[in-house]
TrEMBL record:
It comes from Subtercola boreus. InterPro entries: Acyl-CoA_DH_C, Acyl-CoA_Oxase/DH_mid-dom_sf, AcylCo_DH-like_C, AcylCoA_DH/ox_N, AcylCoA_DH/ox_N_sf, AcylCoA_DH/oxidase_NM_dom_sf. It holds the Pfam family Acyl-CoA_dh_2. One of its GO terms (molecular function) is flavin adenine dinucleotide binding. Residues 28-91 form the Acyl-CoA dehydrogenase/oxidase N-terminal domain. Keywords: Oxidoreductase. Residues 247-385 form the Acyl-CoA dehydrogenase C-terminal domain. This is Uncharacterized protein.
Amino acid sequence: MIATQDKTERLTDILDKLRLLGPTLRGRAPEAERESRVSDETIADLAATGAFDIASPAEYGGAELTVRQQLDVIIEASKWDGSCGWVVWAGASTDWIPAGSGPRVLEEVYGPEWAGPRVAGSSHFPASKGRARKVGGGWIISGGPWTFATASLWSPFTNLGCIAEDEDGTYMVAAQVPRDELVFLDDWHVAGMRGTGSVSVKVKGDELFVPDYRGVDFRRITSGDIESGLSGSLWKVPALGWSFSLMAGMSIGIARGALERFLERSSGRAIRGTTYTNQLEAPLTHLMLAEVHSKIQSATLMMRANAEETDRLGELAAAGTPADPEYMQLFSARILVETAYAARWCAEAIELLQRNSGATAIMDFEPIQRSWRDARIITLHGALNLEALSENYGRLLAGMQPHQFAGITTLDRFTPASRPAERRSSR
């Protein structure tokens, strides 16, 4: 286990290196958009900052930062280029999958030297095209392609969600597949987050055998049923709190970067249709900036609180006193809906900045237009359907159970005892 002081020192070092690298990341962003992926050079540079080690186990030399500390890293990387932030987030927020899959998978993923994200994930929301069939010694997986496989271009393994059907019913299997068994499709041609290289993947051939230890019932991973052998409390935190607190960090970072860029380019710029020769001296700019600040700050404070609560719940579980199932279900639902709100507020803040930046803000070379597109893309993520998440959280507040569905964001993994709605708390 890494001492608190050591973690703080590693966090400071990573953030300092990211700030130095930041202008280079921003300068490379247009090329990454044209290529539909950040360059291998950028991946190597990010790896040199330690950004890909923030959620790696201490037992394998990783920084194993707290979720709250990881949030700061995602924000800083995203401030310079949303696509870089997304790739760092995908690496960090997926580390709980191999940790929940058992010691052999852990050793394969974290044992060797590697500069870049250690594992990617695809189609856990749930999988709809991948299939898994149990055979002697393992699984036969088929189907696909598996979509939105962020970080798969640079990871030694990609974890594929596959649907299995047998006497136990229909459920999802998480299949850990080495990169040399995959085919990467050239299908990442999108409106925003273009540099993430979130291509679809297929297995080579019509079927692939996956040994038993690499194919795990996803319910066992989400429940923490398999002992990892890792000692830190990070491995006991709720997965949704970990993944989605960090996800909001992308929106916050992109919005902060857009605000900084707006202030840089607005000094001395005239506002057409007015007598203002310096946009930063105009009251209408001041009013807009206050609204932008409030949206970004609201998202930041909410996600910091959620990350800290995620860490606290991990410490409770590690001490053998986990929170009760009812609270865990309510917390998980709240994390999801608040992440969706944070993404929306940050996207709205950037839209205000872009709308007040003039016609040149639509140019490819201008970071504000890229921030505007990237932030909106986050709000469209399959796990951030604001209306659906709001309904599920509202149902819990009203004393009802949420909708039952399969996948990584399922809320019925907890089975709380029924209690009157008035005894529930939103915090």
